[in-house]
Specification:
The protein is α/β, with parallel strands linked by helices. It folds into 2 domains: 3-208, Rossmann fold (3-Layer(aba) Sandwich), CATH 3.40.50.300; 217-385, P-loop containing nucleotide triphosphate hydrolases (Rossmann fold, 3-Layer(aba) Sandwich). 39% of the residues lie in helices and 15% in strands. It has helices at 10-18, 26-36, 51-64, 80-93, 110-122, 131-139, 156-161, 165-173, 190-199, 229-239, 252-264, 278-289, 323-330, 351-361, 382-394, and strands spanning 41-44, 73-76, 101-104, 126-129, 150-153, 180-185, 204-207, 217-223, 245-248, 269-272, 295-298, 313-316, 340-346, 367-368. The strands form 2 sheets. The chain has a 7-stranded parallel β-sheet with strand order 3-4-2-5-6-1-7, sandwiched between helices. The longest helix has 14 residues, at 51-64. The chain is elongated, with a radius of gyration of 24 Å. The protein binds adenosine monophosphate. Residues 21, 23-25, 28, 47-53, 352, 356 line the site of adenosine monophosphate (AMP).
Length: 413
């Protein structure tokens, strides 16, 4: 499945293409069609699963089809940081569409408050708000929600933990009864159910619960520049005493290249990819199980279904495309309560992706120093890289983005 299967408006698809989104994540596959059908949704999904795009893309598609005269969508999020992140994602997706969004959150100085109010005076299609600030705006009559079509609650469990239950109920009292409501939460405690019963109308339930890697897996990572990867894998394979090793690379071309390089270095590896006949693949797996082969290099074809006891090391030569693949790959080691090691090589381009994986599994994976002979790798700065590469790709002059004096962009209609 690709994003083209949703038949999004061309300008929205253009935004997706320019952000490099090709394949929907499981929550996106499940939620987008339901949201396009105007149904209410209650979804259990953690950060890192792609939940933001899951709710915002169908909403953007619908906004493009309506006239833009009224505030259309309200996203409520627990923190300023999350509100800003959601706004940045919307800015990327909506870049070519003319749809505008404004984040409103507390905690800033008077200038931020004025800037938010001014931006609201200009009107917007989407507001992303923290509950406290939104209540203040509603009480002051700055925001009119009479024509709202979509209400989205993001990280609802966290909002309740922070004591926002009453605020949310109060905000909802300002909204039209006839609207679509989408509730996203990482967990489903009874209070979320209670809130859902109050505010959702016959919701479709979606549950994306991704297993986390087993306790027995020692997870580690190295920050690398691409040319350092081969040297590092050779070092690990030669220095460590691993009885059976799986190495994952992103494409079968990379698998074949790495296979040749390691064979030339005298390492007894075997490549495993979709160009091989089924019988050849079965032979390789059989030889691997009986320890005649110790090292296999493969694509994600390998990560599902291979049930071999006692794999001691899994190496992600490239960061896997999504968090679920990561869990499947590293889950090949430490099966049946044994222990194992999973090591990921992170180049500069993949930092953001890896950060998404850490978010999803809820822990920070230690970054080990490079062996001295290979030199230092890049620093781990996932947030910085993402912003830079995004701005480079688009260029500020191509769309209607307007940066205010604070550097924070409010797009106007
Ligand atoms: P979220 O769970 O919404 O916080 O998203 C986690 C990260 O995954 C964000 O950096 C998104 O930009 C990214 N992401 C979400 N969906 C996709 C996708 N289909 N393809 C590539 N990246 C994605």
């Amino acid at each position: 499945m690709t994003f083209h299967d949703f038949h999004f408006e061309a300008k929205l698809q253009e935004g997706l293409d320019s952000m490099g989104y090709a394949k929907p994540t499981p929550i996106q596959e499940q939620a987008i069609p339901v949201i396009l059908q105007n149904k209410d949704v209650i979804a259990c999904a953690q950060t890192g699963t792609g939940k933001t795009a899951a709710y915002i893309l169908p909403v953007l598609h619908k906004i493009i089809h309506t006239d833009h005269r009224h505030l259309n969508t309200l996203v409520i999020a627990p923190t300023r940081e999350l509100a800003q992140q959601i706004d940045q994602q919307i800015e990327g997706f909506a870049y070519f569409t003319g749809v505008s969004s404004i984040p409103v959150y507390g905690g800033g100085d008077g200038a931020t408050w004025d800037q938010q109010r001014k931006a609201l005076d200009h009107g917007a299609d989407i507001i992303i708000a923290t509950p406290g600030r939104l209540i203040a705006l509603l009480a002051g009559g700055t925001v009119n929600l009479d024509h709202l079509k979509h209400l989205i609650l993001d990280e609802a469990d966290r909002m309740l933990d922070m004591g926002f239950f009453e605020d949310i109920v109060r905000i909802i009292s300002y909204l039209p009864k006839e609207r679509q409501t989408l509730l996203f939460s990482a967990t489903m405690p009874p209070r979320i159910r209670q809130l859902a019963n109050k505010i959702l109308n016959h919701p479709v339930e979606i549950n994306i619960s991704i297993a986390k890697p087993a306790e027995g897996i020692l997870q580690q990572a190295y920050m690398v520049y691409d040319p350092q990867k081969v040297g590092l894998i050779k070092h690990l394979l030669k220095a460590g005493n691993y009885s059976s090793v799986l190495i994952f690379a992103s494409t079968k071309e990379n698998v074949k290249k790495l296979d040749q390089t390691l064979l030339r270095a005298g390492l007894p590896v075997k490549a495993f990819h979709s160009d091989l006949e089924q019988a050849e693949r079965e032979d390789i797996l059989r030889a691997f199980k009986s320890k005649q082969i110790n090292i296999i290099i493969g694509t994600d074809v390998l990560s599902r279904g291979i049930d071999v006891e006692g794999i001691s090391l899994v190496v992600n030569f490239d960061v896997p495309p999504d968090p679920e693949d990561y869990v499947h790959r590293v889950g090949r080691t430490a099966r049946a309560e044994t222990t194992g090691t999973a090591i990921t090589f992170i180049n500069e381009k993949d930092q953001r992706k890896f950060f998404g994986i850490e978010n999803m599994i809820g822990s920070t994976i230690p970054k080990l120093p490079m062996p001295a002979s290979l030199g230092d790798g890049p620093p781990y700065q996932p947030e910085v890289r993402h912003k830079k590469s995004f701005e480079r790709k688009k260029g500020p002059q191509r769309g209607s983005s307007h940066k205010g004096s604070s550097g924070r962009g409010f797009r106007r209609r």
